[in-house]
Amino acid sequence: MQKQRILVIEDDPAIRRGVLSSLRFNGYETLEAADEIAGLELARGENFDLLLLDLNLPGGDGLEILRAVREHSKTVPVIILTARGEQEDRVKGLKLGADDYVVKPFGALELLARIEAVLRRSPSRPSDPLEIAFPGGTLDLGKRELRFDDGMVTSISERESELLAYLSSNAGRAISRDEILARVWHLNPQAVETRTVDMHIVRLREKLRDDGADPRIILTLRGRGYQFAEPPR
Q1: pTM of the predicted model, to two decimals?
Q2: Could you count the other beta carbons within 10 Å of the beta carbon of residue 103?
Q3: Domains recognised in the chain with CATH numbers
Q4: What confidence tens digit (pLDDT) does each residue in 117-167 have?
Q5: What distance in Å separates the CA atoms of residue 112 and residue 100, rounded to the nearest whole number?
Q6: Residue among 162, 156, 163, 123 at smallest CA distance from 137
Q7: 12-21, 112-121, 147-156 — which is least confidently predicted?
Q8: Given phi > 0 = left and psi -120 to 50 = alpha, else beta, which region is 128?
Q9: Could you tell me the CA-to-CA distances from 142 to 74, 99, 193 in Å, in that order?
């Protein structure tokens, strides 16, 4: 099996060496760059399966690299490497099409887990499913409709569709409210106080015919968040 190739664009030598070493040890091929010019050259001229991108680079802005990657390919997953105080840039990156972000300092296990999760759910965006199955029916992402096996059809909002798609793409994993706010609403969970996630879950359960007192589709994990139930095997 051909190894997956990851492009690492990070100006801090110690961080870059650590990331590259961990990736190679775990079976990935790597490419590397330490500034915007070299990063743009590799991003435009090389084939790779995932990009790890630092936003603050010598000679320019990492967001320019992200724009270039998205102009060239809508399918390559991108994970932003960001410092704790860079919320604004992080949000810009997500809006430009980044798939996830990791806050420095991060551990090798966390980074590898994020990489594996993004590669697993984003092998090729054009082939992403247009329908999501749930017990009793399917969600049509294009039309934002819940189609039940009994023939009934229920419309859902764009945000509800995005939320359900994110939960289902991580089926079987507990997802915290903070992660949902960051990945679906693109908000800094530390800067806002809101119950919007819980309210959207309540409405989704109603539309999915999922009993809030004993849910079978969107589970509540006390102290951990929500989980989209894995389909029975």
Answers
A1: 0.54
A2: 15
A3: 5-125 (3.40.50.2300), 129-228 (1.10.10.10)
A4: 888 766 444 444 567 888 889 988 778 899 999 999 999 988 898 899 888
A5: 12
A6: 156
A7: 112-121
A8: beta
A9: 18, 20, 31
